[in-house]
Design goal:
With 202 residues, the protein is α+β, with helices and mostly antiparallel strands. The protein is built from 10 helices and 5 strands. The protein has 3 domains: 59 residues, OB fold (Dihydrolipoamide Acetyltransferase, E2P); 62 residues, Orthogonal Bundle (DNA polymerase, domain 1), CATH 1.10.150; 48 residues, Helicase, Ruva Protein, domain 3 (Orthogonal Bundle). The longest helix is centred in the C-terminal third of the chain and has 14 residues. The relative contact order is 0.11.
Length: 202
């Protein structure tokens, strides 16, 4: 079982990366945020899950172990395969998934491509009691306010996934000046500049 990979990024696409380690290039399917931040020539470490099928061996990789665990739990849900589970993790953070399940809210899952109303409801029902929101979901010291919420909402409106938009808004606010943190337009401009015109949308 390949449980983790660490190496140099040889290629990065919208849904997968190729990592060279020990002279071998491994193709790994990843969530949108990992694909968005991966840079060719730079090191990358992923927690991985190897899915074995009769006709293929497929690697799925994640930035942290919590995502890997949620991926495994999603696969236990009736009707959810690896691609659908990866889709959920491309659009929602671990805490957003846990909050939706805890709140018995299947709407966030229905917004994921490939997840229908029945499957969304099954995710909520079958993961009930198995996932809990973490106490601290944002980076230490990161400001969380109505302004960052509005910036995240604006990014979502521009086509970014909830996960990427939320992470970008929080990270941008953490790096911004006090004045910028109080201004939605200023923080939004900073976020868009950081994400770049060539960013991959979820």
């Amino acid at each position: 079982m390949i449980s983790s990979l660490r190496g140099t990024v040889l290629h990065a696409a919208s849904d997968h990366v190729v990592i060279e380690t020990g002279g071998v290039g491994f193709s790994v399917f990843v969530p949108a945020d990992v694909a968005h931040t991966a840079r060719v020539g730079e090191p990358l470490q992923l927690h991985t899950s190897l899915i074995v099928r009769e006709d293929a061996l497929t690697l799925y990789g994640f930035g942290d172990r919590d995502e890997l665990e949620i991926f495994g739990q999603l696969l236990s849900v009736t009707g959810v395969g690896p691609k659908s589970a990866l889709g959920v993790l491309s659009h929602l953070t671990v805490d957003q998934i846990a909050e939706a399940v805890t709140g018995e809210d299947d709407a966030p899952f229905r917004r994921v491509s490939g997840i229908g109303p029945k499957t969304a409801k099954l995710i909520v029902v079958q993961l009930a009691g198995k996932v809990q929101p973490r106490v601290a979901s944002a980076p230490a010291g990161a400001p969380v306010s109505a302004v960052t919420d509005q910036v995240a909402a604006a990014l979502i409106g521009l086509g970014w996934s909830e996960k990427i938009a939320t992470d970008a808004a929080v990270q941008t606010a953490e790096d911004a000046t006090d004045a910028e943190r109080e201004s939605v337009p200023a923080l939004l401009r900073r976020a868009l500049a950081a994400m770049g015109p060539g960013g991959k949308r979820g």
